[in-house]
Amino acid sequence: MPRSPRPRNLSDPRLLAFEILQRVEQGAYADLALDDVLRRRGVSDPRDRGLLTKLVYGVLRKRGRLDYVLARHCRQPLGKLETKVLQILRLGAYQVLELERIPPSAAVNTSVNLARQVGLQRASGFINGVLRGLLRGLPQLVWPDERKNPLDHLQHACSLPRWLAKRWLAVYGAETAIRLAVAQLQPAPLSLRCNTLKVSREELLADLERRGIAARACRFAAEGVVLDDRRGLEVLPADWFQVQDEASMLVAPLLGVRSGETILDCCAAPGGKTTHLAALGDNRLAITALDLHPQRVELIRAGARRLGCAGIEACVRDMTQSADFPAPAGFDRVLVDAPCSGLGVLRHNPETRWRRKPESLGELSALQGAILGRAAELLKPGGVLVYSVCTVTEEETGQVLEGFLAAHPQFVLEDLREVMPQWAELCDRQGCLSTWPRHPFLDGFFAARLRRRI
Length: 454
Ligand SMILES: C[S@@+](CC[C@H](N)C(=O)[O-])C[C@H]1O[C@@H](n2cnc3c(N)ncnc32)[C@H](O)[C@@H]1O
Prior knowledge:
By secondary structure, this protein is an alpha/beta fold. The protein has four domains: 13-140, NusB-like (N-utilizing Substance Protein B Homolog, Chain A); 150-185, no CATH class; 190-243, Alpha-Beta Plaits; 246-452, Rossmann fold, CATH 3.40.50. Helices cover 43% and strands 13% of the residues. The chain has 18 helices and twelve strands. The strands form two sheets. Strands 5, 6, 7, 8, 9, 10, 11 and 12 form an eight-stranded mixed sheet that branches. Strands 2-3-1-4 form a four-stranded antiparallel sheet, with helices on one face. Strand 5, helix 13 and strand 6 form a beta-alpha-beta unit. The site of S-adenosylmethionine (SAM) has 19 residues, from helix 13 and strand 6.
């Protein structure tokens, strides 16, 4: 007689991780799915919350490594397995290979139990067999050699999809590509942008120190703080900071806003850079913040309210369409922080590496070009236009820029090494900001500053 499914412990981190990974498989964003589960299921024990976060992000980041090892102990190709079974195998393999504090036998047993809890008792013997085989084979495990076979090393040891491994190898060479890929396997540091409308970075750091919470100033971003202790998020007043990666904090200052100016932020949601611009302008700017999605425009408004930003008007607009609003050539400065592949923010959104396909880069490039062209019409002669993306693929950076400059001879590219000499080491040969590959521990951001001739 088949055994009946085990009763579910609804706050079991492994069960919740399995559910989240299933949702991600169906298209959800890992961070949103995780937040949603933490909120609705009330996982109160901080250790359970920690394990759940580790399991979800770890499996997504290291999927390439896990699959390499699992494939050696599974008679069928992994692609032929039922997705739910593969997910449980990955969760089990992740605990065996990467979580030293979980005894390997416990990792196997809890995986078998998990299979029973989710109605996969028929696969529990198979899961047990594969994971026990993996355990036995661990002493013989050899990763592809980084010198002899850097492509396989990037794919399997560094967990990149093969197409991306090939690209990075071609663009950066083996050593740099591997350094970059290894850095993207680490969790991102928790960095905050200090809201200078309310507090200075020195005051914020001093406050954290008084509370015994370890934190330090970011290296490049003037308002940036890295928190070594997540408790900082709970003790600081909510209007003192915005969670934001250091590389993302480098974009708004490139506009060089001045008090009283009119600013257009074309792709503004959720508003990290809009609120940064408001702070840089000391709340004395008129900022029009647009985004395609109404629910995301709400996020801009909520962020502005929380941080005490004035002068922001947030509206729903499709920037690829020629609309009657905003008025042509009306803005002193324009930011196009365009929708992109997100291949520079793999530490924050680890599912992107598996979701993104090389075919989509051409479409994104066309979309970015269309938005940039429309944005250019809205800038005053003599004004500054900043184009930025959280990726560094040539299609979405150099090619967009080249196409734009060819079609808009009234624009010139400015050299950011002159505008921001303190960030010269973050700039490429054209004088555009390009954090990778020199700084693999920042997110991969690209930004170019253009000026419209008078
Ligand atoms: C990289 S995100 C912007 C991040 C934002 N600047 C920040 O710092 O918080 C790109 C945004 O572009 C928006 N978007 C996509 N297509 C658009 C379009 N055709 N017109 C306007 N916004 C668009 C997306 O909804 C998304 O919010």
